[in-house]
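Subject: for your reference before the review

Hello V.,

The reviewers asked for a structural picture of the protein, and I figured it would be easier to keep everything in one thread rather than splitting it across files. Below is the amino acid sequence we used in the manuscript, unchanged from the supplementary table.
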Amino acid sequence: MMLSRRRFLGYGGAGMLAIAAGCRPANLNLLPSEDDVAALKRLPLTDRMQLAKLKNNLLGYPINMNTPPEAFFAWRKQLNEAGIGMFAFNNVGNPFKESPIPYNTHDFEREVIQRFGKRYAFPSDDTWGFLSHSGTDSNMHGMYMGRTILKGRTGRLPKAYFTKEAHYSVQILRDLLGLETVFVDTLPDGGMDPNDLAQKLAANRSQPALVIATIGTTFKGAVDSIDRIQDALQGHPSYVHLDAALFGGYLPFTPHADEVAYRLPGKPAPRYDSIAVSCHKFLGFPAPAGLFITTQSHFDEFNALFTRIHNPEYIHHVPGTITCSRDSVKPAEFYFFSTPEAMAQMTEDAQAMLQNTDYFLQQMQSQFPKLDAVRANALSNTIYFKNPGDRIVKKYSLATMHLEIERQPQDYAHAVVMPHVNRQVIDAFMIDLKSASVNL
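And here is what came back from the structure prediction:
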């Protein structure tokens, strides 16, 4: 993958102009003082290096700890040589509109959204989005867009419908947006109960519904059924935002891709309105970032309402994003993950990851039946089980929660089988479990 000559000259020329204009710090070439050298030696870099060697022990949280391939770092170097990251680029505003600041990477950002939009079965001529700061940032934009559109259509604020299994950020964002919450009951596996949703919609007919459906709940790895949610919503003004932070990263690369498809083949009705996916989870981007994808038509409806509270004159257009200045380096770097080569690797990783999840569950159930290991569904890479003790929790950074299973309160932990969790890591975990307590 190479930068085109035109794009390179555009970025590289900008970088040279910046230096020629006197932007280079005057003391750039000064050698560090003795005090500076002493301060550097005091930094805990050795400790961090040791910690980096143990990165594959991270089992409790959905972060892909694999190091990206050398080609990614070569791409980073090309971007650096072109000036991206060398001075202040800014992706302010709508990446599908011309920016008044020429030092941006909107072109990379648009291509990323189009390529991933295709993975989620958005129409090629009706796709809009941007690269956000994180999955939570993407959820914020989805919920704000839903709130704005529904209020514009009905004149009334919607109520927010989600389950207590949803990510904690949803509750924070609901509070931030000033929305009343309607908690929907869950099925035994932790997914949203569509029958309870229907009953609660009936009890709140006067207000529209902003439904936040979760594809891969935070602790149990349950999947809310989008199609059954849509059945329950028939006739009720609604907007469905999909929090697919983890599962939305890998499901498009598996036979289960339909679970996160905006539209199914042969069925014209859309299944949801917007989607949030984290880039640093399965996709493996080495810093927090998120995808937010919706339709251009939804964005246009939202932006017409957004215009009433935003003066577009300063940046020559209504930005369509809550955040103003946005990182330009991340979209350019993340472009690497939208290439055919990267997506081919993701397909291999997704297959291996689900196979390793099968193996993890088999080993837990056969070797440690008293821990009652559970996998919510075959789509999930998450396994939860009774808390095995502080030593294991700390060594493997396991997430823990107090749950009530079949009316029995119990402390649980979970493991998330990410691409770095291979069978050697799983086997080592089993050995540690066996040595941790004779009561397991």
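For the response letter, the relevant points are probably these. The mean pLDDT is 89. The chain has two domains: 106-338, 341-436.

Happy to draft the paragraph if you're swamped.

O.
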